[in-house]
Every structure is written in structure tokens, then in C-alpha cells.
Amino acid sequence: MSVSTLTEWLRERDDAALARLLGARPDLATPIPADTAVLATRAGSRASVARAAESLDTFTLTVLDALLLCDADTRTVKLAEVAAMLGAKVPRKRVREAVNTLIDLALAWGPEDALSVVPSTREAAGLFPGGLGRRSSELDGRDLTTVLSELSEPERRLLATLADGQPTGRSRDANVIVPLEQAETPVQKLLARGLLLRLDAETVELPRQVGLALRGAHPMGQVKANPPPVQTTARILSTVDSTAAGEAMELIRHTETLISVWSAEPPAVLRAGGLGVRDIRKLARELQADETRVTLIVELALGAGLVIATDTSTPQWAPTTQADVWLVSSPPQRWATLAVCWLDLPRLPGLAGSKDLRDKVIAPLSEELRRPLAPASRRRVLEALDEFEPGTGVDSVDDLAGLLAWRAPRRGGRLRDDLVRWTMREAQALGMVAFGALTSPARALLADGPAAAAKQMAEAMPTPVDHVLVQADLTVVAPGPLEQTLGHEINLVADVESAGGATVYRISEASIRRALDGGRTSTDLHELFKTRSRTPVPQALTYMIDDIARKHGQLRGGAAMSFLRCDDEGLIAEVAASPAGARLELRKIAPGVLVSPVPLADVLEELRAAGFAPSAEDSDGRLMDLRPSGLRVPLRQRPKGTALPKPPSQEQLADLVSAMRAGDKAAATRRGRTVALAGGRGADTSETLALLQEAAAQGRSVFIGYVDSNGTASQRVIEPVRVGAGILEGLDSTRSETHRFALHRITSASLVEDS
Description:
Blueprint: H1 6-12, H2 15-24, H3 36-43, H4 46-53, H5 58-69, H6 79-86, H7 92-104, E1 108-109, E2 116-117, H8 120-125, H9 144-149, H10 153-164, E3 168-170, H11 186-193, E4 197-200, E5 203-205, H12 208-215, E6 232-234, H13 237-264, H14 277-287, H15 291-303, E7 307-309, E8 317-319, H16 321-327, H17 331-343, H18 374-386, E9 392-394, H19 397-407, H20 416-429, E10 433-434, E11 437-438, H21 440-448, H22 450-460, E12 469-470, E13 475-478, H23 484-493, E14 495-498, E15 503-506, H24 509-517, H25 522-532, H26 539-551, E16 556-558, E17 562-565, H27 569-577, H28 579-583, E18 587-590, E19 593-596, H29 600-609, E20 615-617, E21 623-624, H30 650-667, E22 671-675, H31 685-698, E23 702-707, E24 713-724, E25 727-732, E26 737-742, E27 746-752
Parallel strand pairs: 16-20
Antiparallel strand pairs: 1-2, 3-5, 4-5, 6-9, 7-8, 10-11, 12-13, 13-15, 14-15, 16-17, 17-19, 18-19, 20-21, 22-27, 23-24, 23-27, 24-25, 25-26
Helix pairs in contact: 1-3, 2-30, 5-6, 5-7, 6-7, 10-12, 14-15, 17-22, 18-20, 19-20, 21-22, 24-26
GO molecular function: helicase activity
InterPro entries: WYL_dom, XPB/Ssl2_N
Keywords: ATP-binding, Helicase, Hydrolase, Nucleotide-binding
């Protein structure tokens, strides 16, 4: 049966169809629509229509344009008219599927022989649906085929250009309209014939009838009915995962280095917010990475709460206490923290380095990078990759961008294709994509969350090794990722020289002294290399350890503010007489003992700079490590990403539909005696109680206006069952369920008159 309005059509839809509509267009359900009329009004608003159109693919949008070209916003049209507008080569089945999609979204309604679209669709679609101009009443009834055949070649070429592209053009010849006899240029002649319309002194428009005549069998041009092809390559999934695991380990290493570097020298926060160019370049040298990767790492560190801007008069970017928790976690857990942070990060690291509207460079960590819709854009890209078989990846990012552009051409704005490229680049750096394919940990993260993803990454990462290879040139080769304890010890006694599948460390006097300062003894170091090296320990390394250990700790300090003691009186005298001793205000208080008003850590640092090798001891004479652990800032509040809103459940959708049905019934109910106070202040409780008790006694239904605890107003038709203790308990006839209503929240009550 044909219906004349969207409201009537929605009322005739079944509950399942309305639930699907509210699920697909959640903006229609907030706040809860009082009835179907309210739902229809919202569905027809320009903002809601534009939002719904963002989810449409290119072909469905083309069908929507065809409906508008058939004037479906002012009259009913047949499906055959729409199919004819699209051209004979487009399958009728595809047109029907697209129309059904529009109907499911309430952008169109009616049967195939009487289709309509909401009027605001024309505003949301733009000025020229299908690339065709507006209709000219002067051309109605004219034989355009004959008229066009009489045109000169320059005139036909001009019209063809406008018909194939934008239907408007600029020309100074549009300044005045002259009779055909006086026309000299093609534009003037076409204006005189009515084949062009003058918009202003420099703009002309091609009428719709002329555009359709020129396009012939393709009124909508070349219709893209199917998505563009994407070239893919299938690889062994284990190869994809292991390659991605290598990237993940590199990301973890770089993040560790970031924390270490910023612990010692936290960079300043720019006056306008963000991280300065010099600091980015300095960090890039430390990480031996490009600035694009460094930007991603600092953004992840900020998003994961590993770094934060200090709340001081001169703010700096410094690691937080959360960084220490992250550092002691296992590598898969550290990766999962960064991966889930990136997935929900409401920022676009790819924008850093570009210029804003004021032609200023956008700095990393600045507010200009904040984009609340960034998480949704990332998920679209990853979910598109998830559609391929595991191990199958796209050969070209441009192909993937083209596919997503076809699926949602109105989503993403001017950065639409850039978002795809940035997402793929960042996902590869995080080990979520390799060879253009989604990895197993990434699939687990999308489907089951970070715990499952960490488990998958642990399986993909190489098994930690428990040994190293000490070389004669005092380098140490780790043939794989080291066990956490072994890795800590090797990093203490040696410096990373090169990283990769096999990490190379360099042992030096400074690194050995660092290990001794950290509380290790020469025996500990000999035992470390003896038990953990698969190659013989070079004699040069043994001599170096013994020689440095022999000198190390001869001079010991304590707090007095601080003190120094040594059994070698000559060394004590040398220290006291040195320039460093003078600066430290050292004085002798006993044989072999010096004291200073300077803190012990500063004393040790000054003496080491002067060429001495002191060490610190505790109250029991044991060596202790006074090296600064680096700046740490308490994490005031864990940064949270912009979580995507969860779609309503089926139960919630059913409740929404039920509430609308109740509103429809209430709106159609004939009301009898009514209890309500003037001025909309609500109903008098005593009179309401009396009316409800009367209805319950007589078995009559009542119409009530009700405001719930959330402030949402609704109207219901209720069959009272029990009234008392400030509560109305009644049967909602629309769902045959019993509900309870607080009497003081009832704004009005009316007896329902029999029809």
C-alpha cells in the first residue's frame, strides 16, 4: 500500500525494521523519540541525512543522486525511472539492492512503483547531483537532438566539457546576454540559444536537459557499480607474523631508549604546546630513526601514559611512574600496551610537520594533532585488511585507499586517502601489518582485546636466548632477544653498538665501571661472562675487569653530609689537595677520612670527572648504586583514548521501539477527564491518585505523561493494576508487560475514552 509521508511509512514498518534503522543510525535514538512522528522528523533533518550518507558506498550514493534527478523529493517515482537514469548497463538487481539499502536507512521509502526521498536529501547531496545542473523550463518540449546537431564544433566541444565534468564554468563572455545575431563567442551563442544559463557576470551553468542529451545512454556518466579491484599476494602466515614481531621488538627498543633519554634530559614543552623540531631531531639521532617514526613513538608514549608534561613553571616532557611499570613488563605485554593505545589514540601523528590554516608547522604532541575520529579511521583500514585470508596482503596502499574511497567516499574529508596511508605506515611500525597483510596479533586485538593479542605476539616473537657470544674485540653478540634478567645485566656492563636480529654490544672501561657502580663486583662480572658466553672469554676482558675493579672502590664515601675514606693516605692527601677537593670543601677529620658539606652523589660525580674512581658505600660498608634513576613524574591521570560508542544491544533497540509504539498509541488515544496543573507544572498528586484508583476499579485504561529519572519525557497508555504507596503499577498494552511509575513523576493523567 502506498503511503504519502515518511511518518506513515515508519508506522507501518515492523519492529525488526525499526530496530535495524535505529541500530544503523544511532543519532535517531538520542534522546529516545517520543513516537514515530518524532523519529520521522529526526530522520529527515539535514544533519542526520548527511551523517547517514557518510556510510553509503559510491554506487548507493549514485542511486540516491538518480532518485533526486527524478525529483523523488517532490513526487513519487518508479524504480524503472531510477534504473533508466543510471543507464542500461547497470543491472536492475544492483539498483534494487541499493534502493533497499536507502530504505533500510529511511533515506528513501515506499514500494518500487512509488519511491520517495526525504526533502533534505537534496541539500545534503550538494548542488549538482550526478554532476548535472538544474532543469531549465525554457527547454521543456524542445527537440534538443536537432538543436545540438546544428551547433558549431567549438560550441559542441564547450558543452561536452561541461557535461563530462562540473556543470558550471567561468567566462567573461557571460557578462551580458546578447541576441543570437549579435553573439560572437561560443558562450554568447549558447546563452542566446538557452543552452547555457547565466548565473552571474562570470559564471554559466549547463541545464540538466542538455547534459542528459549529451550523455546519451549514460545519463549518470560512468557508473561505478562495483568496488575497484585490489591486487593481493598470499604469503605464509608465520612469515608475516615473524616479520611483524621483529618490527614490534624494534618499537619496544626505541620506546625504552626514549624513556632513558628523557629521564636524563627531559625536553622543554613549547610555549604553544608540543615538542620542538630540535628535540625531535636530537631524539632521531639517539634512536637512529627518521623523524616520522620518532613522532609516532613520542605520540604513543604520551597516549600510553609513559611520558607527560610536567606541571611546573617551565614544563618539560618527562617519563611518568607508569613508565617503570611498563619497563618491567614482558615484551609482548609492552607491545600490547602500545598497540591498543595506538588503536584508540584520538590523534593523528601523520599530521605532524604539516602546516595548519595559519601556515604554522604542526608540532608533535601538540593539541593540533587531536582528531576524535582517528580511531574509527584506523579500524576501517584494519577491518578491510581483516577481510582477506590470513597471510594475504595488498600489494599497493593506493589500491586499498581506492577501495575504501569507493566504500565511503564522503568519509574522511580531504585527508581521506592520507589516513589510509598513515594507518598502514604506522601499523607496520607497530608490527600489526607486514607485507600489506594483517598479522595474527592484530586480528586478535581487533576481535578479543589486548590480552589475546599479547599471547599471539608472544608466539610470534623469537624465543628469548639465555646466552651471548663474547668476541676478542670486546664486543658481545646477542644472537636473539635476551632473557629479561640477562638483558638487564648485559645492558649494565656493555653499550649497544648496533641493533637488529642480533644485537651487538661494546664493552668499555666506562661500561665496566658503570656495572661496578651498580653494585656488581669483579667476581660477579667474571661469573656472568663465564656462564653466559658460548665462546671463550677473551683474556683482555678478564684483565680489564680485574684492573678496573682493583682501582674501583678504593675511595669510599658516606653521608656526613658526605664523607670519603681510604686506607691509602697518599690518595686521601691527593684528593684533598686537588681543585675538585677544594670545590667540594673536603677536610680531614681522621686518618684516611675526609668529610664534605656537599651531597654524596655530587661528591662522587665531581671526583670522577677529576679522574678519580670513588664508589659509594652504605652504613654497613657495602657498595651501593647512587646513579640517578632519571626524572619521574607521577601520572596525574591515565590518558584515555576516545572510545568508540558501543552500538545499542538488541534488548535496548527493542525497548526503544516499544517506547515509540507506546507514544504512537498515546497520540492516537481519545482522552477523557484529565488531571494536570496549569502552566505545565505537572499533575496534582492527590487528584492523580484518585483518577488512577478510579480507572483501576473500573478496569479502564489511562493516558499518562511521565518524566523518568533521566529527565526523558514520554507518553503511555496504561491499564492500572494497583495504585498505592506513591506507585502506579500498570500493564503496558503495547508489550503486555507490567511497569511501575512513581506518582510524583507523572505530569498528566487522562481517562481513555472508548472509540
